[in-house]
């Protein structure tokens, strides 16, 4: 059971493992209430409504679970836009600098749902970026004129 919990890849899967029958009923109730609220826009209901059934452990808040799911999705292993230092990436000599000094690329990042896996790329490609390279050591004549 612990291995299944550790390898769960979504809130839905996790809740299905922890509360199997309750989670199914709660999801069904959620879908029914969503359909009922949609139906009330089109159909006038009589004043004496039938009371909705209540379920045990109704303390689970779907808004909280949705925020957990959103955070979970953000942290999954996938390509992410990162900023890299051009000089460090290419091992430039210390007298050379680049403008812009950093460029945006996509690199693999995030967490895997299972501890026995590691987030890393399965393919690579070359990306062309145009930067301006400058020599930080100016000739002596230019240094004297500039000061």
From TrEMBL:
It comes from the Eukaryota. Pfam families: PDGF (PF00341). Residues 63-131 form the Platelet-derived growth factor (PDGF) family profile domain. Keywords: Disulfide bond, Growth factor. Belongs to the PDGF/VEGF growth factor family. This is Platelet-derived growth factor (PDGF) family profile domain-containing protein. The lineage of its organism: Eukaryota, Metazoa, Chordata, Craniata, Vertebrata.
